[in-house]
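Weekly structure sync - notes
Attendees: PM, LS, DV (DV joined late)
Agenda: review two folding runs queued last week.

Item 1: First target. Sequence and C-alpha cells pasted below for the record.
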Amino acid sequence: MKPADTNLTKTARPRYIGKGERCLSLGERRVLCYLRESKDAPGIWTVRVEIGRTERVKTSRINPETGKPIIAGGVPIRRRERLGFADDVHDADGKGVLSYEQAKKLAQNWQPAKEEPKASGCTFEDAIHQYRDFDGKKGDKVDRNKKMDHARLRRHVLRLTSKGKPRKGKRLVAHLPKPAPQDPPIAFSALPNMQVNDLTREILEGLRKSFIRDPATCTEKEHKASQASASRNWNSIRSCLENAKKHKPNGIKSADAWRDIKNLGKVGNKREASFTIHDMPRYIARMRQHGHHAEADVFEAWSHIGSRPGEELMSLRVRDFNARSKRIAIPRRSETVFSKSGERLTVLTEQGVAFFQRITAGRSQNAPLLSPDGTTFWSMRKERKHFKAVWLEAGAPEDAIPYHIRHAYASEWTMNGEDREVISGNIGCSAPILKDYYAKWEQSRLQQQIQKTAPKLALDE
C-alpha cells in the first residue's frame, strides 16, 4: 500500500490538491483515501481493503543466486468503494458530502462482498464483468481506461451496445471461424456463456480472427485498420482472462489457452517518419502563414520535446512548465492527465524554454499549457483529423501522422550519439523499446563511424 498520510482533516487537505491520491491507514489492511484534482472540484473519499493475496506458485525460472525456482504470486487482492465527496466546497450532509470524521467512520464499517466459489464455474461473461473493476497490474489504472477496456469487451465479445441491447450489423458474423473444416461451428452467441475452463486456443484464435476484415472485401487500409483493432481487442481479452484467473473463487485451472497465442505485433501502426525533425520548422511556418497559429504551437511543442502526440502534453497546465529549471513536469496518470509512462521531468533545450516562455507569458498558472483560445483544453481525440488536415495543408507527406514527429525526434537524437538511457528518460519510454524501434538508425551511424575511422587497406594493382 502507499505511504500513509497522518492528517486528512479539512484544514490540512488543501496542500494535496493536484498531487494524487492520499491515504490514511485505519489498521487491519484498511485505508481511507482522498483525491482532489483541482481547486474547482471537491475531493473524493474512497475506502480500500485488502481481502487476501494471490496464490504463490513455483515458476520455471531459476534464481541464479540460490539455484532454486523463483516463487511468483502473493500479490495483494484489494477491494475499493467510493464513499462520497469531501466537504471542500460544500458543507457535509452525512450522505453525498462527508466530513473527515464521517468518511473515516464509514470506511471503518464498510465490508467488501464475499466472493463465493461458483458451482458452475466462471463464464466468459462473468470474467468480463469482473474486469470492469480491474485496477491494472500496478493499481493505477484510471476510470476512463477501465471504461474503455470494458466497452471494447462488451461490444466485441458480448456484442452489446452501451445500453445493453444486442448489436446489429451486416459485418457481424454468426459463427467463429473454424480452425479446420471438420470442426463443428461455434455460434458467437454461445461465447459469453462458455466456461473459461472450456476455452481453447482454437476458440480464442477464432475469436481474434473474427475481428479482422477479409482483404477481398475491403481496401488495404481498412484491412490493416481491422488488424490494429483486433490487436487492441485481443490485449483486452487476454488481460480480462488473466484477471479472472487470479481470483481463486473462479476455479480456473489453466491459462494456457490464451498464453500460448502469439500477439499480432505492431500492425497498422507505422512509425517510420518520411521526413526529419529539421523539416518541422518549414511546416510550422506554413501553418502560421495559413492562420493556424494555435495548431502551429502544438506542432512546435511536440517538436521541441518529442512527446507522444496524444493528450499527454495537451492535458498539462502552465504551472507544469518551469523556466528556471528548464523542465516540464509530466504528472502521474489520472482522470485528467493522459500520461502513458507515468510521472517524469522532461528537460528542455534553450530553444524549447524560449518557446514555452513565449506561449505562457502573462497567463494564469492554472490555464492550459496548449490551448486553441488560451482558456480551454485541446481534445486530441476530437481534433485528430483537423490536425492531420492542417499538417497536410502545410506540405507534410500524405502518409505522415503526428506520431512521426516523436519518431523523427528520437531518431535524430539517437543518430547524434546520445546514451539511450538519457533519451528514453526524457521522452518517456524504456531503453529496450528505444533500441528495438530505432536500432536501424544506430546501425547507420555505426556504419558511418566505421567507414570514417577504421583502417583502410588499399592494394596497388
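Item 2: Second target, run right after the first with the same settings.
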Amino acid sequence: MPASELADTSAAIVMVLQGHLTRSSLLTVFADAGPQIDRAACERCLIVDCLTMTGYDPDARSEFVRWVRERKPLLRCVAIVTDKVLWRMVVGAMGLASQVPTQAFDTRDQAEA
C-alpha cells in the first residue's frame, strides 16, 4: 500500500501519492481528503503529486474519476504532478470523464502557481 501525505493550504488540498496505487489505498487517502474538501467554504484546487508513484491499478483510476466528479461543485481544478509521459496523456481523459478542469504538471511549483 502506498504511503501518502495530505496538506491543506488556503488555495488547495495537496495529496502526495507514493508507490503502487490500488483502489483500496486510494480510498484510504480519500477518507482523509474528502472531509477537508467537503467542508471548504469555497471552491478549491486539488493538487495530486504522483512523482513517487510507481504505478496504479485501472480500478484506482476509475475510483479517482468517480470521486472527483462527485465533488465537482467543490473543486475549481485538479492538478496532477507527474513526470511520466503516458500518465500525462491519461490526465486529459480523466479530466473529461470527471468534468472538472484537470491538467498535468512537471513540478509541484508549476501546479501551485
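Discussion on item 2: Residues 4-112 form a domain with the Transcription Regulator spoIIAA fold (CATH 3.30.750.24).
Action: LS to circulate a short write-up before next sync.
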